[in-house]
Amino acid sequence: MQFDDDADLDTSEVQDVRGSRIPGGRATVGGGVAGLIALLLALFFGIGPDQLGLSSGSDPPAASAYSLAQVQQSCKKGRDANAQEDCRMVAVVNSVQTYWTQEFARRGGTYTRSPTVFFSSRVGTACGTATSAVGPFYCPGDRKVYLDLGFFDELRTEFGSSGGPFAQAYVVAHEYGHHVQDLIGTLARSQDGVTGADSNSVKGELQADCYAGVWARQATTARNDATGKALLTSLRDADIRDGLDAAAAVGDDRVQERFQGRVTPETWTHGSAEQRQQWFYQGFTSGDMAQCNTFR
To answer: How far apart are CA 171 and CA 188, in angstroms?
Structure first.
């Protein structure tokens, strides 16, 4: 996975509130690995914390001037994305949103860009106050993606993913898949509160996996309108294998077997390892969001 060394990064698409304290309110979910496991069994790569009954008592914190300045100073070019994790996430956000902006326009629609919020420990959102234990999520209330970068260590050490830069990119692209669903009106179908292997919740998550695969297929051809160049210049077979491995690692069956010792399909919310790989690969091989109709 390689970004154009000379490409400009757009840090305005990231809000960095790492180290900020939330005024008022309190998160109702415990942090640490125990909290992570308990929550991810119910919700992984999901929608906002309101679905888990979290506190709704605080507004999102203001971005820390120090951390924002750090990102703005450190993450200027593609070469920075090739060297630093937070800059790489900025580049992935830029690439994902460049692709969806162009794809919506090609289909006669308008894509509304969504910022990613970097946070640490806990964060206030329009969907409630959440801790890092929730994992990455998309909040439809404010149309933002929330990400604690420390999650990527958990993905490798606790969930057995091989890790790697593209495994991280897959996580971000999946969350933006939920944003796409929100914009086209399919997100609500997956929020009926029903669980199970054939539930709309699972179908919605698999569609977000498929949309992540579509971006991966088109990422090296989605060119910046100003420069005419693609920000992401190459994806190798090994990168796609990392993405598939990450998709499998967070399958409901793998997570349940790993942390509760048994598989209970009636409680699934995200789909099996095989299904998640299948739909990511469907998006990647087709490069066509029309082939991502998991609800049919």
So the answer is: 21
